[in-house]
Design brief:
Layout lengths: L39 E3 L4 E3 L16 E2 L16 E2 L7 E6 L6 E6 L4 E5 L4 E6 L8 E6 L6 E5 L3 E6 L4 E7 L9 E5 L3 E7 L4 E8 L8 E7 L4 E6 L4 E6 L1
Antiparallel strand pairs: 1-2, 3-4, 5-6, 6-7, 7-8, 9-10, 10-11, 11-12, 13-14, 14-15, 15-16, 17-18
């Protein structure tokens, strides 16, 4: 008789539990723009969601290009005046990310292939990474845990580790995945990054890299075959990476 061996894993029983109907929002028209994004942001108090609308720009709480202050008790009236308007990109903004440790520091990346770091308190751009750093569309940007570095993925098939204060590229990896579909990258624990992409046969892949040795991945795993881009989200409290896709 043969006995089936179950591979041991501490994540075997990690799963999501769908919320009940009375705890869900229904009939929300999420944006159908072609930008690969989660289209939402969540903190302990609020959820922001980008909605479908003619001409774009519609949102439930927070838009992409302005900063709003939400009262502790939530919204009782529509917000019509922004605290500050950040103007610097020449084309639409697709990525925004708050600095993990510094207050009022926000990063934005747009279709102009430019990354700006803002002082939200003054509304001024304090750092600029121009198209000489990213010659094509920026797919993803993520801060390191201490905020000293950012990792980016670009349409030119390169993943870059950048020190934003100096505007210098610390490390760079060409074609971390062999497929032609977009690559996304996030920092994870212990100075490593995780990337999602595709093989030449359109198989979805996830890879783990050491930022100091990007020649070969520490681990490369093929997941399935699908055309949907996988978006990685890292939870530093549990050291778990969540992957979601359209």
């Amino acid at each position: 008789m043969s006995r089936q061996v179950v591979r041991s894993s501490k994540f075997r029983h990690v799963f999501g539990q769908p919320a009940k109907a009375d705890q869900c929002y229904e009939d929300v028209r999420v944006s159908q723009t072609t930008w690969d994004s989660g289209f939402c942001a969540v903190n302990p108090k609020f959820m922001a969601l980008i909605c479908e609308a003619s001409g774009g720009g519609a949102f439930l709480v927070l838009p992409l290009s302005k900063v709003w202050e939400i009262p502790d008790g939530g919204l009782t009236l529509p917000l019509r005046e922004a605290i500050v308007t950040l103007e610097g990109h020449t084309k639409r903004v697709g990525i925004v990310a708050w600095h993990p440790t510094a207050q009022n520091v926000l990063l934005s990346a747009g279709c102009d292939n430019v990354i700006l770091v803002w002082d939200v308190g003054t509304g001024a751009a304090v750092l600029t990474l121009g198209p000489d750093v990213h010659p094509d569309t920026i797919y993803s940007v993520d801060w390191s845990r201490d905020g000293a570095l950012i990792c980016t993925s670009c349409r030119d098939k390169r993943v870059r580790i950048i020190e934003p204060r100096k505007g210098t590229i610390v490390a760079e990896k060409d074609r971390p995945h062999e497929g032609t579909r977009p690559v996304h990258a996030v920092f994870v624990s212990e100075g490593k990054i995780l990337t999602t992409g595709f093989s030449r046969m359109s198989e979805r892949q996830v890879a783990l890299w050491d930022t100091k040795h990007l020649e070969e991945p520490l681990s490369l795993q093929e997941l399935d075959t699908s055309s949907g881009v996988l978006l990685p989200f890292f939870d530093p409290d549990t050291n778990i990476v969540y992957l979601c896709g359209k």
